[in-house]
Design brief:
Elements: H1 8-19, E1 23-28, E2 36-42, H2 51-61, H3 63-67, E3 71-77, H4 79-89
Parallel strand pairs: 2-3
Antiparallel strand pairs: 1-2
């Protein structure tokens, strides 16, 4: 990745390509300045891996990008886990998407960007 600004779109494209992800959601939680992101990554490559191995794979795939940002959070699932969670959340519990804990509507409070 060049020195260009890291965006939700660029991270999504990189994850889709590098991890053969079938579904990726990336949310810029920094108010648009590109320094804090959270994500949901669904890839068959995660099958048989524990959480630590999945996160290590993501961190390796985004080594350059993660070095250039302040904060990164990822929820990693296999397609089967994602489908199961979607089915269980269809009752209105809202469990889809990347983790947004500590935010107000997906944005960090106090960020003026």
């Amino acid at each position: 990745m060049s020195d260009s600004t890291i965006t939700e779109t660029s991270l999504k494209a990189a994850l889709t390509e590098r991890l053969q992800a079938v579904h990726v959601e990336v949310t810029d939680m920094s108010g648009g300045c590109g320094q804090s992101f959270t994500s949901l990554i669904v890839s068959p490559a995660f099958a048989g891996q524990n959480s630590l191995k999945r996160h290590r794979a993501v961190n390796a795939a985004l080594k350059t990008e993660i070095a250039a940002i302040h904060a990164w959070s990822a929820k990693c699932q296999t397609p089967e886990e994602w489908e199961r969670d979607k089915a269980s959340s269809s009752s209105g519990s809202g469990g889809e998407g990347p983790p947004l804990a500590g935010t107000v509507q997906g944005r960090v409070e106090g960020v003026d960007a």
